[in-house]
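Suppose you are handed a protein chain with no further information: no name, no annotation, nothing but its sequence. What can you learn? This example shows the usual starting point.
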Amino acid sequence: MIRIFNHYVSKMAFILLLLELLMLLASASLASALWVSDAQGRFRADNLYLSSLTFALVIIFSMSALGMYQHSAKEGIRTTLIRIMPSFALGFGLLSALIAIRPEFYFGRGISSVIFALGAAGVVLTRLVVFKSAESALLEARVIFIGSGALARECIDLAGSKFGLHQFNVVGCVPIPGEENCVAEADLLPLGETLLVMAQKYEASEIVVTVSNRRSSFFPNRQLLECALGGVKVVDAATFFEREACQIRIDSLQPSYLIFGGGFDQSFLRASSKRIFDLLASTFITIATAPVMLVTAACIACEDGAPVFYQQERVGRNGRIFKVLKFRSMRRDAEKGGTPTWASANDPRVTRVGRLIRKLRIDELPQMLNVLRGDMSFVGPRPERAYFVEQLNAEVPYYNVRHSIKPGVTGLAQVRYQYGASVGDAIEKLQYDLYYVKNNSLFLDLLILIDTVQVVVFGKGSR
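A reasonable first move is to predict its three-dimensional structure. Written in structure tokens, the prediction is:
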């Protein structure tokens, strides 16, 4: 994994993106060599490079928006072809809209067909080569876990579930006396050798410490120092989860990790850039979706009458209460008992129009006004109701940390996890929110917005 603006990105996925960008640029340039404009057949290069770059970036964005970089390393040619088709169709639509505004980007019908064909073939070829390379044992990260408790079991499960380009080969676990064993006997490594000798013997490149009690006399402090000095990377479980799952795990978290772990950028520069981004994004989306919002308001009024909008108190930055604005998607008497209730799957309180606008996230569009007013940011932890915040603060450690920044219309938890409808779901989402609070940047905001497109298109996580 590599770190870009505090966010962890798969090294192989980053290489894949760069290779595909180069392949798409080459496809556009090669096809454009056929583009002649005068009677003498001389090659015309005006706008060629800008048009080629625009084509490549739009296709990369389309593939990202439809989850082409959240893939399985075992993806075959058939699956690759199926996934590429809608991505290129989206790219074609975006390019057509762009060409309507800037006609000089138009290559011509025949040349455009060749560019798309070459680009698709290039992407398929690149992916097959990279996927095959990723399966090589030479690119596997061999890891040893120190400890054999419940946290070690979770780390093994995470390492085993990595179906992307960053593959792990779990060598095994080194048990620590006094710790309850929660892993299979086959995963335990024989004792008798130092950790450095063991790492060299099994060719392990990394050691992950999963032991919670590090003050025990059995904790191998000196051996871990020898490993670090001997060139073997040593990290704790919290860092492992943060890097591989984009989560800060509650069960492996110690206050010192948050205090000394870096991040939590709330500087003037970061706040200013985020506010400018919020204003630009919310203004653009409000203008672009105005017809959709008008139709939605009319449909809600026709089905269930007024009011069309729904205001609800939510907890914002530093615990400040504000009223979030949404299109009403439930019946007017949804909480006639007066007690807030978690939404459930196939909730009977949701109207027919409400079910559709929730699935497409249209009910969230009025929150652009909250962003413009400064109550919310475009990207951040989702704001929760005060009733649930009090409950979660009492039951979930570090829950209030998410209120150190403005809540968002969309966020990392929204694109990585299902709709929250219980305390357990709130804990899972909090672990993503903590990662965002710690590592937030404009780069991460852009990645979350791209993933939001996929969530909206495929209706993931709606209730």
